[in-house]
Amino acid sequence: MLQKSALGKALHYLDGQWQRLRCFLDDGRITLDNNPAENAIRPFVVGRKNWLFSHTPSGAHGSAAIYSLMETAKGNGLSPYDDLQFVFETLPILG
């Protein structure tokens, strides 16, 4: 079979990923796909589209920071509202 054929490319790729495939086969806790990871980052993609309409770069950075806090809280099973409330109550007041 030719290495440049579709099957040849697939087999070459498989050979390069063999160690990872073995890891997956040896440990049943490892998932076959990365859907949970893809779903976890989806809100950031939506947020990135919204940041395009920020009036200033610092506004976009601020939005991204708050969005990151919220998604991290959700990802760790915490309440984003409680997390934000804690942050705002403990932040020093800038004057």
UniProtKB/TrEMBL annotation:
InterPro entries in the record: Transposase-related, Transposase_IS66_central
Pfam short name (any one): DDE_Tnp_IS66
Domain spans labelled Transposase IS66 central: 2-61
Protein name (database record): Transposase
Organism listed in the record: Halomonas fontilapidosi
